[in-house]
């Protein structure tokens, strides 16, 4: 979903999803490679609880507590 949002940033869902990403990750890189690298940096830096919380916010679903 993040890659789709990077490639199609004008969609309403894409704008919402990209607004969740910290400003330290420059997702407005000119090249697709730069956008992909920033996205991978963002995802690889997530802790498990943060990734689960983000998943819940993106999908509107809840998961059992860990």
From TrEMBL:
Q: Which Pfam families match?
A: HD_assoc (PF13286)
Question: What keywords is this UniProt entry annotated with?
Answer: Hydrolase
**MF annotations from Gene Ontology:** hydrolase activity
- Phosphohydrolase-associated domain location: 28-57
Respond yes or no to whether keyword Hydrolase is given for this record.
Answer: yes
According to UniProt, the name of this protein is Phosphohydrolase-associated domain-containing protein
